[in-house]
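[SOLVED] Need 3D model of a two-part complex

Original post:
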Amino acid sequence: MLILVTNDDGIYAPGIHHLASCMPENADIYIVAPESPHSGQSSAITVKNPLRITEHKEFEKGRIKAFSINGTPVDCVKLAIHTILPGNPDLCVAGINHGSNAGNSIIYSGTLGAALETTTLGVQSIGFSLLDHSMDADFSECLPYVKQITEDVLSKGLPPRVCLNVNFPANCKINGVKVVSAAKSHWTDEYKEYVDPSGHKFYLLTGDLVNEEPENPGTDLYWLERQYGSIVPATPDQSATWEIPTIRDIVGE
Amino acid sequence: MLILVTNDDGIYAPGIHHLASCMPENADIYIVAPESPHSGQSSAITVKNPLRITEHKEFEKGRIKAFSINGTPVDCVKLAIHTILPGNPDLCVAGINHGSNAGNSIIYSGTLGAALETTTLGVQSIGFSLLDHSMDADFSECLPYVKQITEDVLSKGLPPRVCLNVNFPANCKINGVKVVSAAKSHWTDEYKEYVDPSGHKFYLLTGDLVNEEPENPGTDLYWLERQYGSIVPATPDQSATWEIPTIRDIVGE
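Solution:
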């Protein structure tokens, strides 16, 4: 069994090594992750710049090998499967992300970018995230769930072209997991304005996630607030096929 | 009427100025685009670095104003609506991209990243692309279609949370437009290996798009090959809600 482990926080983030430690003992594990943090990189790819692979002997342990790439999470998945791995993996896991990828955060997430990419390449995948941004986040409560979900997926298989976006609440007992949709949500008040020493303005990203359906028990944000883990099946196909008749009316086809 | 015009090829790409020229004469047009090319940036956001806004008087003309930002297409949309525009726009158009965003290319596209972001913020949007990567691409054949689709959307409105991904064939007469889904597709043979002067390997992205359903007339790639423009309704919500029962079985919820 061959498993690819990646993330968007970079190879030095503790979350990815916790994730590798949850994989089955009879698997060959390849950690292939960005050499530096790439949060918010979505499905971005490096188009023109050279990509280089670095082996990390310091993270080798038993059947775990480790490599970093000077690129995005999607670059890591593509180049790992093309060049580094000895064959097609049976599973790709991404994370454990330091911070939430629930609600509409999935669209910006490099962790889910990696998982969605793997799905497109025909390999089943799971993105895991913990709702704590800090580098010393406590993963202990979620690790048994990570193990169990991984075992379930390996033994039963995922439907084609669907990956899982799994989020866990932080710093609390987890009551269980719920399979739901992503809550309709968006970010607001997104920039703080500053003035630099030469008098020019600049802006830094900030903001709050607004949950547009806080009372909907069919959504991830609802259950995360109630100390449950959430599992959202996610697709890389963004076609809104159900709207085709409406759009035909609008453009007069 | 207020219209935001953006792209991922950057403010100096001809396509964005062709696009601005297609907007209605009674609209105030704000071009807000990356200061350098950002192809393949998907929905990436700049998380930690300062964003700066530069006004471009050289592109001002009539009711058109122009600005660039040292960030991604999604940064441009967010910061434009937050800081630059005098109010919420009635429409955002992105493009005209130099190159295809059909099939699964949408997931990597900064042009569509911008359009999907605008949709999330409650503003209707359209991404336009021409299947010619060159900077001296000939846009003349597609411009009447860009104008007509923009007029149709402004007069009839799009459904909420759906934007349009519009692609045009290049260097040919266009036979019309078809409203369809994105063709199931993926990239293959994606890296070329090189050796640098000091003997270390590096890799550059290359590869071919494989259409997994070439005979399906319900898809964009089918019609683009037959000299039609394609219009794919696209959603930022990646939840595969229809798979929830299957995933519940797999994880035993």
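Edit: Helices of chain A lie at 14-21, 73-84, 110-120, 143-156, 220-224, 244-251.
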